[in-house]
Amino acid sequence: MSINRVPISAGLLLLVFLFQEAFVNRINFFLGGFALYLAFAIAWILREERSSAVLIGFLAGLIADLSPTLEAPFGLWTFTMTGLAFLIVTYVRGSLDSNLSPLTLSIVTTIFSTIALILFVIFGAILGQDLPSLSVLARELIGNALWSFVLAPLYIPIAIRTHKLSLSARER
Hints:
Helix content: 55-70%
Largest sheet: none
Number of helices: 7
Distance between the termini: 12 Å
Radius of gyration: 15 Å
Number of domains: 1
Order of helices and strands: HHHHHHH
């Protein structure tokens, strides 16, 4: 990733994060919530090359740590998203179709956004964060997976367009 893409990518991720915090978090979703920013970042990571994907994961995690409602240690989302981006591009991206059909992208994004939330809860528990009951956790995870899959036709094209927008003419 060129150094010129870093501010553009960070700015685009920050805009999606602000949209998540200002609008999406105010909606009462049936069966838990919807993490638009998380699903958007994972869809973007799936479109990137290896080194760029890890940097996008780091930036996405760093921005997610800025949430005013987050009651977790600072850096937990950064650690989770950076590690998850590395796992995605190392083990998953190579086995997927190079074009990534919309259905495949929807399913993989849904699975990995759920895995990201599970890892966040596990790492938070290791660091001493209080956990809700298993029924509440299961409802939130199932609800997030459901809404990530149902709303995928809305956020995945936006993630693909913003990824293309961040590329320079040479990288396209």
